[in-house]
Amino acid sequence: MNQTENTIRNISDTALWAAVYRARETERPDALFSDPFARRLAGERGERIAQSISFSNRVTWAWMARTYLFDQFISEQVHQGVDLVINLAAGLDARPYRMGLPSSLRWIEVDLPDILAYKEEILRGEKPACAVERVRLDLKDVSARRELFAQLGRGASKALIISEGLLIYLGADEVGALAEDLAAPPSFKLWTLDIASPGLLKMTQRNMGKQINQSGASLKFGPREGPLFFERHGWTPVDVRSLLKTAGRSKRLPFMMRLASIFPDSSGAQGLRPWSAVCLMARK
Question: What pTM was estimated for this model as a whole?
Answer without folding.
Answer: 0.94
